[in-house]
Amino acid sequence: MVSCKSVYEPREDSNMLETWVKKYAFGKVLDMGTGSGIQAIAATQKSSVKSVLAADVQKGVIGYCKKNIKNKKIKFIQSDLFSNMQGKFDTIIFNPPYLPQELKLKDLTIEGGKKGYGVIERFLNEVNDFLNPDGIILMVFSSLTKKEKVEESISNNLLEFEELEKQHIFFEDIYVYLLRKNEFLKKLGKNGIENVKYLAKGHRGIIFTGLYKSKKIAIKSKNPKSTAFGRIENEAKWLKRLNKSKIGPKLLIHDKDYFAYEYIDGDFIIDYLKKSNKNKIKNIIKIIFSQMRAIDRLKIDKEEMHHPIKHVIVSKNKPYLIDFERAHYSKSPKNVTQFCQFLMGGYAREIFKGKKIAINNGKLIQLAKVYKNHPNRANFRKIVDSICK
Length: 389
Description:
Layout: H1 12-24, E1 27-32, H2 38-44, E2 49-56, H3 59-68, E3 74-78, E4 89-94, H4 118-127, E5 131-142, H5 147-156, E6 159-169, E7 172-181, H6 183-190, E8 193-201, E9 205-212, E10 215-222, H7 231-243, E11 251-254, E12 258-262, E13 267-268, H8 269-275, H9 278-297, E14 300-301, E15 312-315, E16 318-321, E17 328-329, H10 335-344, H11 346-354, H12 361-373, H13 377-388
Parallel strand pairs: 1-2, 1-4, 2-3, 4-5
Antiparallel strand pairs: 5-7, 6-7, 8-9, 9-10, 10-12, 11-12, 13-15, 14-17, 15-16
């Protein structure tokens, strides 16, 4: 066979993976990072495999494989992971470059980024869009890649894994994992939600984005590590009620496991205040106060409005309240007074100083106390006017 310096020669990890490819591969197969083509060839040996698409980022590798591998089931293409990919597959095979990058050495066949797991993370962040609902992923990696980081990325992308094999070779452990879409991801797919991507994680919830009826949405589910009970159902309940008063992003779908709402593309409140002028800031504060007043009148305590750094997003000069997981009924809600606390605190005070917005803390404290005891419209207006006139 003609040699090619850029081809990854089969080693122990390749042989381990090959064993499981011969056992599990089926249907339409994608061999990502094909290298020498060993996994593509192994897949074709199964009668249950209909076709194999073998991809590699390096042009020289694809040229080598086309010249040396003649198999009607295999098609070779050049692609940086999924950049040149279309369709969905039943089996996706991945022997990634997984070693931490050395200072000078840059070998695409073995190095997976500065910490080793960069290429794997990129792969996992995209793979669900190309995997059929009941499809599988066969992947090999090393303990040098930081196993806990790989498993965290698997979990964040709503995949579940099974360790098929582990071998200790010299100074590292080599693992072969079988991955599948978890039941939650399958449920989202059945409900018409596609292109699901991990966005952020909190103490009690995890946020994903997705597409629903061709529109971008946000999806919130429970953080598996949280011991809190019923938070998802509680938040969806309050958001649905507040939507009737045109507060919060529009709730679209909800059940006991998750809820989905329109995605708000904007800035968190602090970032908006930093980049906006005095008039825009005062207008946003007025609108937020009006929403706080509306929630007070509904006898709902949102909580955390004294520190709403990640609870208010401003989009097109309109504020949206998010994160209602701690919302509850209260005879004496404190949304207005909590927002007063935020405006007097260090985060906002320094910004207001630079924007020449004067807030008299002593006066605002007194007005907030009066409103707390007599939460009527007149006392509310005095608070707003003290800041926004």
